[in-house]
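Please review this one:
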Amino acid sequence: MPDENLLATLENGLRQSRATRSRLGARLADLEAEAERVRTELNEMDAIISQTEAAMFRIMSSMFGAAQSATPPSDAEIEFALRRDAAANVPRVTPPSSPSHLPYQQNKSSSHEHHFRHHIPQIRSDIEPKSDRFFERTIPYAAAVLLREAGGPLHVNELYNRLLEGGFQFTGQNPTISIAVSLNRNGRFRKVAPGTFDLTIRDAAQAS
């Protein structure tokens, strides 16, 4: 009878649909398990990268003295550290076309250069943490917050002062060099004068 034939056809289609759904569900479960394994591996690689960068910063800092000095590194020493870091061919965050990869002499911004070249803030010795907002944060994260708050470029000495006020904990003997190297590697920042950095996005917005 027509109704029985139609019912049989529908039952067959239902069985096929359920079988297909079962296969898709199993495949989805496999993909989710694989995604979780990849996330775990990514987290492990992030930890390795952070540990390696911290070790490199400590080694670079030790190259400028075996003991903590009362005199912070000069702009010339910071520039020397940046050149050594660039010569080591360490992969950077941004592609080679980013303005942060151009040598300082090739940057087209001259207004920042003359304003900041001779102004080197002093590192204060009486700094007490006013908060813990930068505790266990990375240098790029904290520096981006400070530069947005400042509304303009800051020298690494001033960044160091403000990072300490925010509860940031440094390792190594020359934290200002660590700040400079970290920001110079990151495409979110660009060097506008020796030892002085600004946000790349802010420069792009001002140029438009």
Remarks:
- The chain has a mean pLDDT of 78.
- The helical segments are 2-62, 75-87, 111-116, 139-150, 156-165, 175-185, 200-207.
- The beta strands are 154-155, 189-193, 196-199.
- The radius of gyration is 27 Å.
